[in-house]
Amino acid sequence: MLSCREATELMSQEQDRPLTLRERVGLRLHVLICAACTNYRQQMSVLRAACRRFGSGGTP
Ligand SMILES: [Zn+2]
User: Fold this and answer.
1) From ligand 1's centre to the CA of 57, what distance in Å?
2) Can you give the pTM of this predicted structure?
3) In the chain, where are the structural domains located?
4) Is the predicted pLDDT of residue 23 greater than 60, yes or no?
């Protein structure tokens, strides 16, 4: 089982490269049982959506 540290590390690596099947499964299992990492992941996806909008749209 991953530690929280490993899980958050995988979440940030996920932005840069595709995770292996093993990594994805480990991460998914960890997130299922860990509320802290569930929150972290949610915040990250909000941030990522904000970044994407910022990056692609620019100023109106
Ligand atoms: Zn965790």
Assistant:
1) 33
2) 0.76
3) 4-53
4) yes
